[in-house]
Each structure stands twice: as C-alpha cells, then as structure tokens.
Amino acid sequence: MLIIGIAGGTGSGKTTVVNQIIMHLPSDEVCVISQDSYYKVNDHLSYEERTKINFDHPRAIDFELLVQHLKDLKAGKIIEQPIYSFVTHNRTKDTVQTHPRKVIIVEGILIFNNEELRNLFDIKIFVHADTDERLIRRIRRDITERGRDIDEVLIRYQTTLKPMHQQFIEPTKNFADLIIPNDKLNTVAVDIVRTVINEKLQNEFTRKD
C-alpha cells in the first residue's frame, strides 16, 4: 500500500491535484480520504458555539482517529469514514465504508502538522497557490457549498484563515517531498507522482506473480 499526503492552504487546489493524480489509476486501486471528514465531534456545543470554532487550527482535527483509520487500512481492515457537515458545523451520524486500496490519498490543510500522521505518508506533497487566488476560491466555495454569506467569509479570512495559514500551514511546506505550483506548470510534478505510483503498483503485481 502506498499512502500519499497532499497538503496546502485553503483553496490552493488540492482537490484538482488529487483528481489529476487518480485520473489514470484504476478506480478499484485508489481511495481518497479527506481531513475535513475528521473534524472533532461537537455535540456538546450549541450551534452558535460551533460557528465560532477555529477549523483552521490543528486542535480541531481528530488526528487520533485519522491515524488509527490509516493503520487499520494498512492492516487490511475496512473503516467507517466519518462525514462532516459544514452547514451544521458538526460530524453527522452517517459514515462511508472505506476499503483498503493499493493507493490511499489523504488530503487536507493540516495533515502535515501531526508527526504520527506525517510519518505514515510514503509521499508528501504540498500544493502552493497565490494568496489572492486562494481567497477567491474560498469565497466561492463557502457561499455555494457551505451556505455562508460574503461578510462571514471575509471576516473569517481576516481573523482566522490568514493567521492560521501563516502559523500552521505554510511552515509545513518544509516537510513536503514535492511542492506543486497550482498552475499549468504542475504537469511535470503530477506526472512524476503518477510514475512513482505506477512503479509501486507494478512492483506489487510482479511480486504476486
């Protein structure tokens, strides 16, 4: 099993890179796990209190569960991946049954902050994007997908997103094996990652023979 970690700031284009990587991989050999699914359960808080949670701080993530789930997948076990609602700011009661695959891709803004999780990654990729570009994408996403209004998004960006990015996300670029610019120049980097994955899969296939 090959576990790939893909980090980067909010709106940096991590999902685009993930899709570029898995585009030419058999669907039954790869699965994607999002850090966003592993925000902590906040049943003990009111909705008003949950809206004030700093979701860009490492303490908002249930790293213990994420690490355990990756270990379970490596051991050949099926996991029940949580589902998080950004409308209610809480984990739902539903889960997604996730099976072990030859390639596991974990993506999220804070996944390089936890050493135990970081050590599980065979390849660590950081997606870099211009600050203004990231802000525009975040505004569009939060309004269309998460039911936020423009004022809420801008206030959160100024008071939370920007300082958290500078403190907890940008520095983790130093842990990356590969830094991918989120523009047309990332083609070579993505091709390199695909080559590594294909070689890994081919080697496993050869050993089974």
Task: Describe the model.
The protein is an alpha/beta fold. It has one domain (2-208): P-loop containing nucleotide triphosphate hydrolases (Rossmann fold), CATH 3.40.50. It is built from seven helices and seven strands, in the order βαβααβββαβααβα. The chain has a five-stranded parallel β-sheet, with helices on one face. A hairpin with a 4-residue loop joins strand 3 and strand 4. The longest helix has 22 residues, at 187-208.
Write the layout of secondary structure elements.
Blueprint: E1 2-8, H1 14-22, E2 30-34, H2 47-50, H3 63-74, E3 79-85, E4 90-98, E5 103-107, H4 115-118, E6 123-128, H5 131-144, H6 150-169, E7 178-181, H7 187-208
Parallel strand pairs: 1-5, 1-6, 2-5, 6-7
Antiparallel strand pairs: 3-4
Task: Give me a quick take on this structure.
The protein has 209 residues and is an alpha/beta fold. It has helices at 14-22, 47-50, 63-74, 115-118, 131-144, 150-169, 187-208; strands at 2-8, 30-34, 79-85, 90-98, 103-107, 123-128, 178-181.
Count the DSSP helices: 7
Secondary structural class: alpha/beta
Cα(first) to Cα(last) distance is 17 Å
Beta-strand level of the residues, as a percent range? 15-25%
Total count of domains: 1
Uncertain runs: none
As laid out across the biggest beta sheet, the strand order is 2-5-1-6-7
